[in-house]
C-alpha cells in the first residue's frame, strides 16, 4: 500500500530529525529567542514550496509575534502552473543571481535580528543572495534544508558557496535529495515528497524551543489564539493584542 509507504518514509525522516538535530534546533532557537527578547525580528525566507514553512509559522493559531515573513510573490505563487507567474518563470527566477540583493533592499534590518532561510538543496542563487546580504549586515543566519544530501552538489552561485556553508546554524531536514519518496512501477520519477513535512516538523521544534527560552527569560509571548472555541470570550481580545503588537513592531521594518 503506497499510502503506508509514504507514511513510513515521513516517519523515518522525522525520526532522523529527532536523533540527529536536537542540538542544532536548540542553537537556532537561542539566536531567535535573543532577537525576539530584544523586540527584534526573526526574518523568514524561502522560494517555491520552501515558502510553506514560512507561511506555517506566522500568522497562524499557536504562532506568536517575532517572526517576519519575507515572501516574494513571483517566487511563491505559481498556482496557475502555466501562463502568467508559471512554473517556468519561477524556476528561472530562483536561479537569477542578484534578485535576492534587490529583495533585501526593500527592508530595514538590525544586527539584533536573525535570518531564517529555507531551501531543500541550498544551491539556488536567490537564497544565497539573501544569506550573503545578511552576513554583510552581521545578522546571524539559520539555514534549514537537506544539507548532508547536497554537501557535494555544486552551487549555482558565483560566490562558490551554498546556503548551508554560509549559515551560522544549519538544521538538516534529513530528506533524500530526490525529495519524492514512493516509487511507481514503469515510471522514472517517484511520487510522495517528504520535504514539506520535514520543514514543518523542524519549524515547530524550533519555535516551541524559542517559546520555552522566552518564557524562561520572563518574556510575554503574544500568541495567535484559536477564535473557534465555544466559551472562550477573550480570544478576539488576545488576537487583537497580538496583531497590535505586530503592527507596532513592524513599523521599523
Verbal overview:
The chain has one domain (10-250): Rossmann fold. It has helices spanning 2-20, 22-37, 52-57, 87-93, 99-104, 125-136, 163-166, 195-216, 235-250, and strands at 42-46, 67-70, 114-118, 141-145, 169-172, 180-182, 191-193. It is globular, with a radius of gyration of 19 Å. It is 43% helix and 11% strand. The protein is an alpha/beta fold and 253 residues long. The longest helix is centred in the C-terminal third of the chain and has 22 residues, at 195-216. The chain has nine helices and seven strands, in the order ααβαβααβαβαβββαα.
Summarize the structure.
The protein has 253 residues and is α/β, with parallel strands linked by helices. It is built from nine helices and seven strands; from the N terminus they run H-H-E-H-E-H-H-E-H-E-H-E-E-E-H-H.
Low-confidence stretches: none
Number of helices in the DSSP assignment: 9
Reading the helices and strands in chain order gives HHEHEHHEHEHEEEHH
Q: What is the class in the CATH system?
A: Alpha Beta
What is the C-alpha radius of gyration, as a whole number of Å?
A: 19 Å
Structural class: alpha/beta
Helix content: 40-55%
- Number of self-contained structural domains: 1
Number of strands: 7
CATH superfamily assignment? Glucose-6-phosphate isomerase like protein, domain 1
Please describe the biggest sheet, giving its number of strands, its sense, and whether it closes into a barrel: 5 strands, parallel
What name is given to the CATH topology?
Rossmann fold
Rough shape?
globular
Mean pLDDT: 95
